[in-house]
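Appendix B. Raw example, untouched.
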Amino acid sequence: AVDYLYSRQPAGIGIYSTGYQWNIITGSTKDFAAFPSWVAGAKNAKQAVSWCSGKGFTGGRIELVQYHANGFDADFLCPKG
């Protein structure tokens, strides 16, 4: 799937999931550690910011965290560093 996405859109690729879903679907594989995690499930912006310093479910860094804000989903782009 990753090879196909690169062939269609050579921009960055991240993998969107929750840690729970990733573990159930992939058995916690680290085969995708080169790709950043786009993590869902933070309760608010403050929690989203704090998740950026953790390790993603792929084994790589966390690049984006989705959180709830005023009844909608919002995204926090983690600083690269």
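End of appendix B.
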